[in-house]
Design goal:
This protein is mainly α. Helix content is 76%, strand content 1%. The protein is built from twelve helices and two strands. The protein has helices spanning 6-16, 34-41, 43-52, 65-99, 101-150, 162-187, 194-224, 229-262, 267-277, 285-306, 315-404, 434-472; strands at residues 22-23, 31-32. A two-stranded antiparallel ribbon has the order 1-2. A hairpin with a 7-residue loop joins strand 1 (22-23) and strand 2. Helix 8 (229-262) packs antiparallel against helix 10 and helix 11 runs antiparallel to helix 12. It is elongated and about 170 Å long. It starts with 5 loop residues before the first helix and ends in a 12-residue tail after the last helix. The relative contact order is 0.14.
Length: 484
Amino acid sequence: MAGRFEALNRLWDTVRQSNHDFRATTDIFPILDPESVSRTLELVERGPKNGADNLPATAAKALDDVEQRIVATVEEEKKKSHQILEDEMGRYSERLQGLDFAGQFLLIRKSNAVTLSDFTADVSTGEDELHGLRRDLVALENEAVQFKKKHKLDRTAKVASGASWFFRIAFLIFLIAVEMLVNGNFLAEGSEQGWVGGTLEALILAALNIGWAVLMAFITVRFLVHRFFVSRVFGVCLLGAYGAIAGAINLGLAHFRETAAVNWDAAQTEVVRQMINDTFGLTEMKSWVLLGLGLIFSFVAFLDAASMSDPYHGFANLQRRVNAARERYIARKQELIDLLRDTRDDHNKKVEDIVRDLSDRRQEAQAIIAGRTRLAALFAEHQNLLERTANSLLTVYREANRKARTTPEPKYFLTPYRMERLNAVHQFTVEFNDNEVANSIKEAQSSLSDQMDRIGAAFGEAVARYHNLDTIISEGGHVPAQAA
């Protein structure tokens, strides 16, 4: 049965055998498999055959063709391994050159030369901008001083905030709504449309009553508090006009209620007659209550509108301009300081990154040199291994040859094979010197640290210069000679 599967067995053995003469390994340099080379060169077969023929001759001094093939195989492997060595050395050289320490140190020197000047330029630009904003603020402050002096004001202007305006306007709307509801209940008694008709009429009258009070409050108070006597007299006249018209509006509303209760259609014309002939001739208590409530709402609205802003004409507007200029100046100064702080922090972070990168580059360079040294040592050991492999193969052949010979073996059979060694070609344009690089990195770190200190000092000086603008510019808006 074994004979029936002989061909299959030979095929199986062939499949299991490697298709090359190298041993499977993860080493950089492939390792020759002596057994595979022996089978390839048929040393076991050709050794006895040549020995039986007493070849090589006893007096021979040169290797025979089988021995030369052994040496040629090993030498070929040595050349391939040497090419691998050169390729790996080239990669190490490229990696080391890519670190470019000289270029990095040059960039650091250039950066130190321009960074501080760029930072100082940004400070000067910001200072010029703040100088203009500060001059505008001082001019407005001087204008406010002259305004107060001219109008004999010894107080600050009252400037209502946006929230204050919102609540005051909301209060006026609330007054209109309340007066509308109160008047609507009274007017609804005589309205043919009931509560809806009375409420609509009440809304119109309430808006007229409150609107007149607000309008006269904005105008009248400004004349009443004016420094000129004529203006104050005119303000008193306006105040009297406000009271008279407010009373007329609310009396008309009261007469309208009484008249509409009798005849809604003729109420409008009858009110005019009643106002002319019998102004205060109200016959019902509800009408007097309606009159009193209307006057109260008008007076409250007058006071609310009068207190919305400074009563002195033009004073609040001037103060708002001063406040806006001051806010622009302060906000821009803070923005510029924040920008400089961000610039300083960004610079310092980059410096830290550069220092860390230099240390990483040095470690990488050390790893490259160590790798190159280790590779050279591996190649030297690989050549030793190849030499031992060659001698091992020669021994296999010569032992087989020796056993089959009838004449003495050649004397060179006792001489081991000595393989000529190859060395790696030096590919580094500049040899790496770790001590020099370490010193250069230390100097670069020192210079960068000094640069950080200078940037920090420049930032402090910049902040001081920005704040000093408040005192450099005098009250008159002029720059002293020493500051200019």
